[in-house]
Amino acid sequence: MRKSFIALLMGLIVSLLLSGTAVASGSARPVPTGKTALTKNPIYATGEFDFTECKELNRQPDDVDSYKIYLDHLMDCLNLSWGEEFAQAKLPFGKPKVRFITGAARTGCGRYPAGYAAGMYCQVDKTMWILIDKHQLKDPSEFELFAVIAHEYGHYVQDRAGILPAADRATRKASKATAYAWTRRIELQAACFSGAFIGSVWHSLGRDQFDWDDLLERTLGDPLHGKAKNIRYWLKRGWNGNAPAVCNTFSAPASKVA
Ligand SMILES: [Zn+2]
Protein backbone atom coordinates (compact mmCIF):
# COMPACT_ATOMS: atom_id res chain seq x y z
CA MET A 1 0.00 0.00 0.00
CA ARG A 2 0.91 3.59 0.17
CA LYS A 3 -0.43 6.52 2.04
CA SER A 4 -3.00 8.29 -0.05
CA PHE A 5 -4.87 11.53 -0.57
CA ILE A 6 -3.73 14.19 1.91
CA ALA A 7 -0.34 12.54 2.16
CA LEU A 8 -0.28 12.33 -1.61
CA LEU A 9 -0.87 16.02 -1.85
CA MET A 10 1.92 16.67 0.60
CA GLY A 11 4.08 14.28 -1.36
CA LEU A 12 3.32 16.19 -4.53
CA ILE A 13 4.47 19.45 -2.99
CA VAL A 14 7.64 17.85 -1.71
CA SER A 15 8.34 16.22 -5.05
CA LEU A 16 7.81 19.51 -6.87
CA LEU A 17 10.32 21.14 -4.59
CA LEU A 18 12.79 18.37 -5.25
CA SER A 19 12.21 18.08 -8.96
CA GLY A 20 14.75 20.79 -9.66
CA THR A 21 17.45 18.53 -8.29
CA ALA A 22 16.08 15.38 -9.91
CA VAL A 23 17.57 16.26 -13.28
CA ALA A 24 20.94 14.61 -13.07
CA SER A 25 23.96 15.55 -15.08
CA GLY A 26 25.65 13.41 -17.69
CA SER A 27 23.55 11.11 -19.78
CA ALA A 28 20.50 11.16 -17.49
CA ARG A 29 17.29 12.65 -18.83
CA PRO A 30 14.73 14.66 -16.90
CA VAL A 31 12.12 12.68 -14.96
CA PRO A 32 9.01 12.55 -17.17
CA THR A 33 5.82 14.32 -16.13
CA GLY A 34 2.12 14.22 -16.97
CA LYS A 35 0.62 11.53 -19.17
CA THR A 36 4.04 10.61 -20.57
CA ALA A 37 5.20 9.62 -17.08
CA LEU A 38 2.24 7.25 -16.74
CA THR A 39 1.85 5.65 -20.15
CA LYS A 40 5.19 6.14 -21.93
CA ASN A 41 7.63 6.08 -19.06
CA PRO A 42 11.22 5.24 -20.09
CA ILE A 43 11.23 2.60 -17.33
CA TYR A 44 8.84 0.55 -19.53
CA ALA A 45 11.43 0.56 -22.33
CA THR A 46 14.07 -1.26 -20.28
CA GLY A 47 14.97 -4.93 -20.62
CA GLU A 48 14.73 -7.84 -18.23
CA PHE A 49 16.43 -7.58 -14.84
CA ASP A 50 20.16 -8.26 -15.22
CA PHE A 51 20.91 -9.59 -11.75
CA THR A 52 19.30 -12.97 -11.28
CA GLU A 53 20.98 -14.03 -8.05
CA CYS A 54 19.61 -13.10 -4.64
CA LYS A 55 20.24 -15.68 -1.98
CA GLU A 56 18.02 -15.43 1.08
CA LEU A 57 19.94 -15.23 4.35
CA ASN A 58 18.97 -17.43 7.30
CA ARG A 59 16.73 -16.05 9.99
CA GLN A 60 16.21 -17.24 13.55
CA PRO A 61 12.77 -17.42 15.20
CA ASP A 62 11.97 -14.30 17.25
CA ASP A 63 15.34 -12.78 16.44
CA VAL A 64 14.45 -9.36 15.00
CA ASP A 65 18.09 -8.59 14.18
CA SER A 66 18.36 -11.64 11.94
CA TYR A 67 15.21 -10.49 10.14
CA LYS A 68 16.65 -7.01 9.66
CA ILE A 69 19.84 -8.47 8.19
CA TYR A 70 17.72 -10.68 5.92
CA LEU A 71 15.75 -7.63 4.73
CA ASP A 72 18.87 -5.46 4.33
CA HIS A 73 20.25 -8.11 2.02
CA LEU A 74 17.04 -8.11 -0.03
CA MET A 75 17.35 -4.33 -0.26
CA ASP A 76 20.85 -4.78 -1.72
CA CYS A 77 19.38 -7.09 -4.38
CA LEU A 78 16.56 -4.66 -5.16
CA ASN A 79 18.95 -1.70 -5.35
CA LEU A 80 21.19 -3.54 -7.81
CA SER A 81 18.35 -4.79 -9.98
CA TRP A 82 16.41 -1.55 -10.13
CA GLY A 83 19.52 0.65 -10.31
CA GLU A 84 20.41 -1.14 -13.53
CA GLU A 85 16.90 -0.60 -14.96
CA PHE A 86 17.11 3.12 -14.18
CA ALA A 87 20.51 3.29 -15.86
CA GLN A 88 19.00 1.68 -18.96
CA ALA A 89 16.13 4.17 -18.84
CA LYS A 90 18.67 6.99 -18.39
CA LEU A 91 16.70 8.19 -15.38
CA PRO A 92 18.44 9.48 -12.25
CA PHE A 93 18.46 6.97 -9.41
CA GLY A 94 19.39 6.72 -5.74
CA LYS A 95 18.73 4.11 -3.08
CA PRO A 96 15.55 4.49 -1.01
CA LYS A 97 15.50 4.94 2.73
CA VAL A 98 14.00 2.01 4.59
CA ARG A 99 12.85 1.44 8.16
CA PHE A 100 12.07 -1.97 9.61
CA ILE A 101 9.59 -1.80 12.47
CA THR A 102 7.80 -4.28 14.73
CA GLY A 103 4.85 -2.11 15.74
CA ALA A 104 3.67 1.47 15.99
CA ALA A 105 5.84 4.15 14.41
CA ARG A 106 5.60 7.79 13.51
CA THR A 107 6.28 8.38 9.82
CA GLY A 108 6.36 11.40 7.55
CA CYS A 109 2.87 10.31 6.47
CA GLY A 110 1.50 10.08 10.02
CA ARG A 111 1.18 7.12 12.31
CA TYR A 112 2.06 3.78 10.74
CA PRO A 113 -1.18 1.78 10.35
CA ALA A 114 0.04 -1.31 12.23
CA GLY A 115 -2.54 -4.08 12.17
CA TYR A 116 -3.68 -2.91 8.76
CA ALA A 117 -0.64 -2.55 6.50
CA ALA A 118 2.23 -5.01 6.03
CA GLY A 119 4.32 -2.24 4.52
CA MET A 120 4.06 1.32 3.32
CA TYR A 121 5.93 3.69 1.08
CA CYS A 122 5.69 7.29 2.26
CA GLN A 123 6.29 9.92 -0.41
CA VAL A 124 6.78 12.64 2.17
CA ASP A 125 9.78 11.09 3.94
CA LYS A 126 10.75 9.05 0.85
CA THR A 127 10.96 6.02 3.09
CA MET A 128 9.85 2.42 2.80
CA TRP A 129 8.31 1.28 6.09
CA ILE A 130 8.33 -2.51 6.52
CA LEU A 131 6.51 -4.16 9.41
CA ILE A 132 7.95 -7.38 10.81
CA ASP A 133 4.99 -8.90 12.62
CA LYS A 134 4.97 -11.53 15.35
CA HIS A 135 3.64 -14.29 13.07
CA GLN A 136 6.46 -13.71 10.62
CA LEU A 137 8.94 -13.72 13.50
CA LYS A 138 7.77 -17.21 14.47
CA ASP A 139 8.36 -18.59 10.97
CA PRO A 140 11.83 -17.89 9.54
CA SER A 141 10.93 -19.56 6.23
CA GLU A 142 7.93 -17.32 5.55
CA PHE A 143 7.88 -15.61 2.15
CA GLU A 144 5.52 -12.72 2.80
CA LEU A 145 8.17 -10.21 3.85
CA PHE A 146 10.03 -10.80 0.59
CA ALA A 147 6.87 -9.96 -1.33
CA VAL A 148 6.13 -6.91 0.82
CA ILE A 149 9.57 -5.36 0.44
CA ALA A 150 9.51 -5.99 -3.33
CA HIS A 151 6.06 -4.31 -3.52
CA GLU A 152 7.01 -1.23 -1.47
CA TYR A 153 10.18 -0.90 -3.52
CA GLY A 154 7.84 -0.82 -6.52
CA HIS A 155 6.22 2.33 -5.10
CA TYR A 156 9.64 3.91 -4.64
CA VAL A 157 10.40 3.11 -8.29
CA GLN A 158 7.11 4.78 -9.26
CA ASP A 159 8.09 7.86 -7.27
CA ARG A 160 11.57 8.12 -8.80
CA ALA A 161 10.28 7.53 -12.33
CA GLY A 162 7.72 10.34 -12.03
CA ILE A 163 4.73 8.00 -11.98
CA LEU A 164 3.47 8.79 -8.46
CA PRO A 165 3.79 12.57 -8.88
CA ALA A 166 1.92 12.41 -12.20
CA ALA A 167 -0.81 10.23 -10.71
CA ASP A 168 -1.12 12.60 -7.73
CA ARG A 169 -1.72 15.45 -10.08
CA ALA A 170 -4.30 13.45 -12.04
CA THR A 171 -6.25 12.59 -8.88
CA ARG A 172 -6.40 16.12 -7.56
CA LYS A 173 -10.01 17.32 -7.59
CA ALA A 174 -11.08 13.91 -8.93
CA SER A 175 -14.21 12.16 -7.66
CA LYS A 176 -13.75 9.36 -5.16
CA ALA A 177 -14.44 6.73 -7.84
CA THR A 178 -11.88 8.24 -10.20
CA ALA A 179 -9.29 8.57 -7.44
CA TYR A 180 -9.82 4.90 -6.51
CA ALA A 181 -9.37 3.87 -10.13
CA TRP A 182 -6.04 5.72 -10.30
CA THR A 183 -4.96 4.19 -6.99
CA ARG A 184 -5.68 0.70 -8.35
CA ARG A 185 -3.48 1.34 -11.39
CA ILE A 186 -0.72 2.43 -9.00
CA GLU A 187 -1.16 -0.57 -6.68
CA LEU A 188 -1.44 -3.13 -9.47
CA GLN A 189 1.69 -1.73 -11.08
CA ALA A 190 3.56 -2.11 -7.78
CA ALA A 191 2.27 -5.71 -7.67
CA CYS A 192 3.58 -6.28 -11.20
CA PHE A 193 6.95 -4.68 -10.36
CA SER A 194 7.23 -6.98 -7.33
CA GLY A 195 6.30 -10.03 -9.42
CA ALA A 196 8.90 -9.07 -12.02
CA PHE A 197 11.65 -8.81 -9.43
CA ILE A 198 10.66 -12.00 -7.61
CA GLY A 199 10.47 -13.91 -10.89
CA SER A 200 13.88 -12.64 -11.97
CA VAL A 201 15.67 -14.05 -8.90
CA TRP A 202 13.38 -17.02 -8.18
CA HIS A 203 15.72 -19.76 -9.34
CA SER A 204 18.40 -18.50 -6.91
CA LEU A 205 16.13 -18.63 -3.86
CA GLY A 206 15.99 -22.40 -3.48
CA ARG A 207 12.27 -22.20 -2.80
CA ASP A 208 9.50 -24.50 -3.78
CA GLN A 209 6.84 -23.37 -6.25
CA PHE A 210 4.48 -23.72 -3.29
CA ASP A 211 5.67 -20.41 -1.80
CA TRP A 212 4.73 -18.50 -4.94
CA ASP A 213 1.43 -20.35 -5.45
CA ASP A 214 0.58 -19.79 -1.79
CA LEU A 215 1.25 -16.06 -2.15
CA LEU A 216 -1.10 -15.90 -5.15
CA GLU A 217 -3.73 -17.95 -3.38
CA ARG A 218 -3.76 -15.79 -0.26
CA THR A 219 -4.13 -12.59 -2.28
CA LEU A 220 -7.19 -10.61 -1.22
CA GLY A 221 -8.69 -7.78 -3.20
CA ASP A 222 -10.13 -4.46 -2.06
CA PRO A 223 -11.35 -1.28 -3.80
CA LEU A 224 -7.92 0.41 -3.57
CA HIS A 225 -5.77 -2.55 -4.65
CA GLY A 226 -8.09 -4.21 -7.18
CA LYS A 227 -9.93 -7.49 -7.35
CA ALA A 228 -7.96 -10.52 -6.22
CA LYS A 229 -8.01 -11.97 -9.75
CA ASN A 230 -6.47 -8.76 -11.12
CA ILE A 231 -3.78 -8.62 -8.43
CA ARG A 232 -2.92 -12.23 -9.36
CA TYR A 233 -2.94 -11.30 -13.03
CA TRP A 234 -0.39 -8.49 -12.54
CA LEU A 235 1.78 -10.48 -10.13
CA LYS A 236 1.97 -13.32 -12.66
CA ARG A 237 2.43 -10.98 -15.60
CA GLY A 238 5.44 -9.42 -13.86
CA TRP A 239 6.78 -12.82 -12.86
CA ASN A 240 6.59 -14.10 -16.46
CA GLY A 241 8.00 -10.91 -17.98
CA ASN A 242 10.91 -10.36 -15.55
CA ALA A 243 10.89 -6.68 -16.48
CA PRO A 244 8.98 -3.45 -15.79
CA ALA A 245 8.15 -3.40 -19.51
CA VAL A 246 5.14 -5.65 -18.85
CA CYS A 247 3.80 -3.46 -16.02
CA ASN A 248 2.16 -0.54 -17.84
CA THR A 249 -1.10 -0.60 -15.90
CA PHE A 250 -1.81 2.95 -17.07
CA SER A 251 -2.40 1.74 -20.61
CA ALA A 252 -4.31 -1.36 -19.53
CA PRO A 253 -8.06 -1.76 -20.17
CA ALA A 254 -10.34 -0.87 -17.24
CA SER A 255 -11.29 -4.55 -16.77
CA LYS A 256 -7.67 -5.40 -15.88
CA VAL A 257 -7.44 -2.68 -13.25
CA ALA A 258 -10.87 -3.16 -11.66
ZN1 LIG B 1 1.03 -0.67 -2.39
Automatic annotation (TrEMBL):
Topology in membrane: Single-pass membrane protein
Superkingdom of origin organism: Bacteria
Major location (coarse): membrane
A matching Pfam family: Zn_peptidase
Keyword Transferase in annotation: no
Keyword line: Membrane, Signal, Transmembrane, Transmembrane helix
Keyword hit for DNA damage: no
Cell location: Membrane
Name of the featured protein: Neutral zinc metallopeptidase
Provenance organism: Microtetraspora malaysiensis
